[in-house]
Write a structure and sequence with these properties.
The protein has 20 helices and 30 strands. It has 653 residues and is α/β, with parallel strands linked by helices. Strand 9, helix 5 and strand 10 form a beta-alpha-beta unit. Helix 19 runs antiparallel to helix 20. The radius of gyration is 29 Å and the shape is globular. The relative contact order is 0.08. The structure holds phosphoenolpyruvate and manganese (II) ion (MN). The site of phosphoenolpyruvate has 10 residues, from loops.
Length: 653
């Protein structure tokens, strides 16, 4: 039986609960399960009487009592209704990678680490395709004592170095309790191999280290035995266990093992723990690995662990089942297409400035440029915003896309960037909000609002009667809807208003009277074109809100640009999702209102790949006391699912 304690329970109430249980002959075990503090009560010979449970439920400080009908308690869904989400990594500069919930997380790498170069090369290839955790065996449990046994600690060091360089947490197998202590500072997640699933001393040792554990199912283990092994890990102290189905032994010999697909829905019903699948060891034949992996995702697996080798034919172990990087790339694309069908999203590695091949050329460590990035071409509204924030002479970098702009700030080729996020007539620019989620190392550090006056621009030979086609950004069309509705013009969307104007210069002489663009007067000046009509926006109170972005410095928010003044931040932006249950959004909002935090904006936005699930975008006014807001953030993190702090800055009036 498990007693889940109320948050903030007093020491006195806790002692009363302990005394109650001891008096009735239970032996007690206190620990955390997910975010909950619990007391596990076991060992009463006559079992748990219903009256005990009822009385316990009434004691102050008891949130809930879970008396499970299963031999595994901590792993049982009866003790925890929601799905457990396991977090791997997060130490140093490594990203946090989550497994479970609404995401599909893919682990990939070679069967064994063979050399520094081999693991580095494989890591780079699998990361490019979207793997978020790097796998590789340093200690290999081999059926034959004469087969390659792994490089041991050296191999682990090589793998750690590759993981750090490529920004991927690593998972590796631990084969004996003696090695666990040596390995714990180098690995981000321990793997318990199939052959060791019931090595209880190993489970106790590894569980007590508190790191996340990937627990493979033994080739002949029942699901209940497997969950009891997970119970060993949870009871020993770790709260992060991921189960891994890797094929079981049956009479069939065409495949290495038989992938027990039905284990996935069974586990989902029995346990709150995430479950992933290892299609490589399950089928053992390269050509069948991808279909087995896709089947696992379709059946509800929270991810896969896949063996990939740059040259499988010369692999020192499990070459025949290792995918070529190109096959892995194809599998990842198929998973991405399948994910929405099962209501999930493929987790992608966050773009951070240590990440990717760029870091091998040390671009990530170059001093920041003094240039300011904006998207579009000369004359773009963003360039006007840039000049407003940084001065007319500020050195600038024109980027062809918003993601290119984020990349420039991330790799240091620009010190700051200017990004439009919202227009007073047409609403939020969602593409850019989404980029903040993909680039967690980028923060909002400033804000400004720019009045937008749209002009119809064309060659001097054009008039309102000769125009047939108008080009602009979709926002330009939306903001000039009333004007455009009066004419039968065809609208052609461009990535940027200034680019729409620049495109007119490429038109042949004969076509020039028929083509126009909607943009700022500055864009017409930059291209030597004519303003046919000025102020065509539907409502003259047309403002676009731009944010200034900068790269975080070792996780800390970068300073605001000096040109924006040195006042204390008075505004902040957050994005979060909430659990799918009544009142969960209200709970978050009341955390803010109870501390007098003024919510300036609240917008919901569909989560890609998860129909009818939403992210909430929130802007708030900051209280004077910093500690107040820190406490609000901490509390919000416990009540939300995904939580992103986009930055604190001085709001523009
Ligand atoms: C492995 O993942 O490297 C491995 C040895 O797998 P299993 O323990 O499932 O055989
Ligand atoms: Mn292997």
């Amino acid at each position: 039986m498990i007693v889940i304690l109320s948050k903030g329970i007093s020491a006195h109430d806790k002692e009363m609960i302990r005394a109650f249980l001891r008096e009735r002959g239970f032996s007690l075990r206190e620990q955390t399960l997910g975010d909950d503090e619990i007391i596990g009560a076991a060992g009463k010979a006559a079992g748990t009487a219903a009256s005990d449970v009822q009385e316990l439920t009434l004691l102050p400080g008891v949130e809930r009592v879970a008396a499970t009908s299963k031999p595994f308690e901590l792993a049982s869904r009866e003790t925890r209704s929601g799905d457990s989400i396991v977090t791997v990594g997060g130490e140093g500069s490594l990203p946090f990678v989550k497994i479970g919930g609404s995401r599909i997380s893919i682990i990939a790498g070679p069967c064994a680490v063979e050399s520094r170069e081999q693991i580095r090369e494989t890591a780079e290839r699998v990361r490019e395709s979207g793997a978020v955790i790097l796998r590789g065996g340093a200690f290999k449990p081999r059926t034959s004592p004469y087969a390659f046994q792994g490089l041991g600690m050296k191999g682990l060091e090589y793998m750690k170095a590759a993981g750090e360089e490529l920004n991927m947490p690593i998972v590796t197998e631990v084969v004996s309790p003696e090695w666990a202590d040596h390995m714990k500072d180098l690995t981000d997640m321990f793997q318990i191999g199939a052959r060791n699933m019931q090595n209880f001393e190993l489970l106790k040792k590894v569980g007590a280290l508190g790191k996340p554990v990937l627990l493979k199912r033994g080739p002949s283990a029942t699901i209940e035995e497997w969950l009891l092994s997970a119970e060993y890990l949870l009871a020993s102290g770790t709260r992060d266990v991921v189960l891994c189905e890797r094929g079981i032994r049956t009479f069939e010999t065409y495949t290495r093992n038989t992938l027990d697909i039905s284990a996935i829905p069974v586990i989902k019903r029995l346990s709150h723990l995430p479950v992933i699948v290892d299609p490589s060891h399950a089928v053992g034949i390269r050509g069948m690995v991808s279909s087995a992996g896709l089947a696992a995702i379709a059946a509800g697996a929270d991810g896969l662990t896949v063996e990939v080798h740059p040259r499988p034919d010369s692999a020192l172990s499990d070459g025949p089942q290792s995918l070529y990087p190109s096959q892995f790339e194809r599998l990842m694309r198929d998973i991405e297409a399948l994910a929405p069908v099962v209501g999930k999203e493929l987790l992608r590695t966050p773009r951070t400035h240590q990440a990717g091949p760029a870091s091998s050329t040390a671009r990530g460590t170059l001093p920041l440029s003094n240039r300011i990035a904006f998207s579009g071409e000369s004359g773009a509204y963003a360039e006007q915003a840039l000049m407003r924030a940084f001065g007319e002479d500020a050195p600038r970098l024109a980027c062809p896309s918003f993601s290119g702009l984020f990349d420039a700030v991330l790799d240091g080729s620009a010190g700051f960037g200017v990004v439009p996020v919202e227009n007073s007539l047409a609403g939020s620019i969602h593409e850019n909000y989404d980029l903040f989620l993909r680039y967690p190392d980028i923060a909002m550090v400033g804000e400004l609002k720019l009045r937008i006056v749209h002009c119809l621009i064309a060659h001097p030979s054009a008039t309102l009667d000769t125009i047939k086609v108008v080009r602009s950004h979709s926002q330009g069309f939306a903001q000039c809807k009333d004007f455009l509705d009066k004419y039968p013009w065809r609208l052609e969307s461009c990535y940027n208003t200034a680019a729409a104007v620049a495109s007119l210069l490429k038109e042949r002489e004969a076509d020039r009277p028929a083509i126009a663009a909607i943009a700022a007067e500055a864009a017409a000046l930059a291209c030597g074109l004519t303003v046919i009509k000025e102020g065509i926006e539907t409502n003259p109170l047309n403002y676009t809100r731009f944010v200034i972005i900068a790269r975080k410095n070792n996780g800390d928010i970068a300073p605001a640009p000096p040109s924006m003044g040195s006042g204390k931040p008075n505004k902040a932006s957050l994005v979060f999702s909430v659990p799918d249950k009544p009142g969960s959004l209200v709970t978050c909002l009341s955390i803010m209102s109870s501390r007098e935090i003024n919510m300036i904006k609240l917008e919901s936005r569909p989560i890609q790949g998860q129909p009818w699930r939403y992210l909430f975008y929130v802007d708030v006014g900051l209280p004077n006391a910093e500690s107040e807001f820190d406490a609000v953030l901490e509390e919000l993190k416990t009540k939300t699912e995904d939580f992103h702090f986009l930055g604190a800055y001085r709001g523009a009036r």
